[in-house]
Amino acid sequence: MPVILVTDVLVWLLVAAAAGYAYYCRRHDHLAAPWRRVFASRAAMVSLVVLCAYLAAGLADSLHFRARLESGGPGAPAAYSNEVMSLLDVAVGDLRTRSEKTYSAPFATRLYAKELIELPGGKSVRDYPRLRFGGAHLKTEADRGADVAAKALAALAAAVAVWGALGWALRGFARSRPGVPWRAAWLALGALLALAAPAFALSGGYHVLGTDKVGQDVFYLSLKSIRTSLVIGTLTTLVMLPLGAAVGIMAGYFKGWVDDVIQYAYTTLNSIPAVLLIAASVLMMQVYIDTHPELFPTTAQRADLRLLFLCVILGLTSWTGLARLLRGESLKLRELEYIQAAHAFGVSHARIIGRHILPNVMHIIIISLVMDFSGLVLAEAVLSYVGVGVDPSTTSFGTMINNARLEMAREPMVWWALAAAFWFMFVLVLVANLFADAVRDGFDPRVRVGGGGA
Amino acid sequence: MSPHDGISLGVSGLTTWLETAEGPLHAVDGVDLEVRPGECFALVGESGCGKSMTALSVLRLLPEAGHISAGAVHLGGEDLLALPEAAMRAVRGRRIAMIFQEPSTSLNPVLTVGRQIVEVIERHTDVSGDAARAKVLELLAAVGIADGERRFGEYPFQLSGGLKQRVMIAAALAADPDVLVADEPTTALDVTIQAQILDLLKKLQSERGMAVLLISHDLAVVAQMAQRVAVMYAGQIVEVATREAFFRAPQHPYSQMLFAALPAAANRGAPLAVIPGQVPALTQRFRSCRFADRCGLVFERCRTEPPALVPAGLGHAARCHLREAGQAGPRSAGPGAAAVHAAGEPGPLLLEVSGLKVHFPIRRGLLRRVAGHVKAVDGVSFGIREGRTLALVGESGCGKTTAGKALLQLIRPTAGTVRFGGRELTALSRSELRPVRAAMQIVFQDPYASLNPRMRVADILAEGIQALGAAATAAELDRRIDAMLEQVGLPRESRKRYPHEFSGGQRQRIAIARALAVEPRLIVCDEPTSALDVSVQAQILNLLKDLQDRLGLAYLFITHNIAVVGHLAHEVAVMHQGRIVEHGPVGDVLSRPQHAYTRELLASVPEIDAVPER
Fold it and tell me: Does the predicted TM-score (pTM) go above 0.80?
């Protein structure tokens, strides 16, 4: 039975909107030209490949369902598990369920904490017990190194084969579209495959990134966190964009009292500490959720609402930057002669904003959206760390860091949960920033060297 | 005076490339020139001909994409191109100084005027402290700033454009340079200020025996200032001559056509000569004369062999094969007889403006209380008849553009009446105005800012028609767009293209077509040619004249260019500080000005034919 979460709907709507925009751009040369410049940059293509991998994980994790339970006779009404699964959960196999008791280090075969172990003879010793899943297939623990190496090499070989085959198959396609650094993209894909293939191959027999306090596989948690980050990064803009764009353009275009009201509004909003505002709103939301349990059949739906609400709150507190940028640009544009010419034709205000101002500030909107994305991903981590972020049952980089924080003081240190969250988030934010840089350069008219020629 | 063969600045074989996406662009291609002490040498040419690049190459101040690939620049016997950058910094400002076009951006806004000049003195000479201050005051006095003590401590924003340019000149002179490079020093200034600055430069040059390399697009300025003239076209010098020889008998066809394209009262009524085509792309290697495609005198050899500079008389040379056969004759002063411009029957009064006032409130304080008014337009009255042109002349800030916009109701006037075809406009609301909008349109100065870069030409032209509901069907709209493009002389294919694909002159044609699309009876032309080169300006003026003859349009022609007024207008109104100080038929006002301000304005206009005797 499919479960339709609100954020899933919004995520897929966003994907559809992006596809529509891409299609529209393809048909309008002046819109496609800056994007062509973006895709001509090596950094952009490399970061796009990595971004696509993240996106694939996030989107696979945005298709949810409840599994049918194998119970009752043939005539019995279908019963569904109350556990909501996603396509990603299916794709990674039983990674989700292979939980240990508590912490274990990456590739470990034994737990990280000593326990009393019953020996067959009735005696008991205090030692590190063997893991239930990690390395359970090994005959002796001494085989671990050889087994890991063999599996990694086999996966690597398979990855190289797939990589080469892909390069060979798509060579004609790449040749028909010159000007795009396909080679850089292909190399980035190779590096990605070389990392991902062994990781997935080994995750069948080991906990590649270790396990956390309650024994969950950290690699799995990291994959699940991707969706949370993407949702926060993108859905927040859905709230922020219309508000910021409309308000900013109106302030700049109409000036006078409209401008005064809007400026006072965002000055006021900016002077309230955002964390306080978010904390208050999230607590109010939590109270509402707790008092209306009947609205949420599953925990996933409850957590999802809180996530959505967090996006809304973040959006409501972060539109001011965009509005301010657009106000300045509109103030400049409204005095331009083509707008005056439109006034001389008696064109209505709405039409002037829609046809003259909006298209001419579009580059600013796109650039600030891409730039804001990485900021929002980091904001989620910070808020979850403080405890006012996502629901504790939602996996996110913030909750991972929050859970790992206490163990940093432990000797020997439990470093893998924190490290995994750090690297996954670091790479995501880095490629998003690199891509944003390329977008900004592509849309900056000053970078166009000898563009006209005609 | 100079120790080196009596040459202050010698440039030979200078070649400067700009790296572009389409390959290297030969912005300057083998330029030779010599400037002697006490001489003003002018480089003349239209935009993109490489004159500013030449100046920047001399100072080695090229943009990042540019580099000098060949040639030598000798300053008093030393090759500047061979110097290391550190040594070059000691040369700039000390031995060779530069003043730029835009005085408002050439001064640092957060430093006082005095501080900025002291900086130059302390950097290049041993003078500092009080002595430097005394030197600055001396310099300020030398550039004609009366109140030096007070100005020393002022910031650039407290100075007018003319004063700023004087400060720039003072800073340039601070270390007594041998050579002054002046890149369009007066282009951003009003004509009366321009006259003052040109006089100042001339005086300083003769007092100090300085060599001046003047870069200009304005033949009239050159006629006043220079002793020798070089014309640049497509990165090369195509003609070099003494001023007298050049203005008497230009030898290169390009120079000749530039003169013919100048509007003046003398060639009134006759179409101006137009240079067809465009400057060729400088990324190619030329195997022909660069001007061949636009030249009226082109012949077989021009297509196969690039011409060299051919001597044509004493100190005169032109890059043209024709000159091997002999010199060209002196230029005629335009078709003088064409002044028999039919006065025509004055049509009925189309627009009547009386007592028009536009005051902008100055708001102060937290509550934005009105503390006073800027009286941009202060009681202006005039009328325009059907099919006639009224020129509104004045300097920047006199309120002429505001008056134009106010009569179109783009800015609501504070007081006064605007009657158009017998209908009072000032009382109408935005929606009531819509039907009237079709009858009066506007063409702006800057063809780059007046077209939305994100709209196709067809959409730009359709906007007015759609907004005013003038076309019933899509087919009708299409037909009208095609008709408009044809009327302004653009190919029908242009409708699918975007504004950035067109040159400045073509864009101005699109702007005119947009105004024409709604079939107006009056067009307010707000400096429609002042952002354009001379040859392009001629095309646009011809087009406007032609449209008036065919469609019976009335123009309100807002301009600061007196020559254009003499060429085009029927009546002139001279504006000064928000008021019209003189109003009358064009012949009367230009030849017998009554008001003191008009007289001053006309006296300030540099004239080509009045080359001063030495």
Answer: no
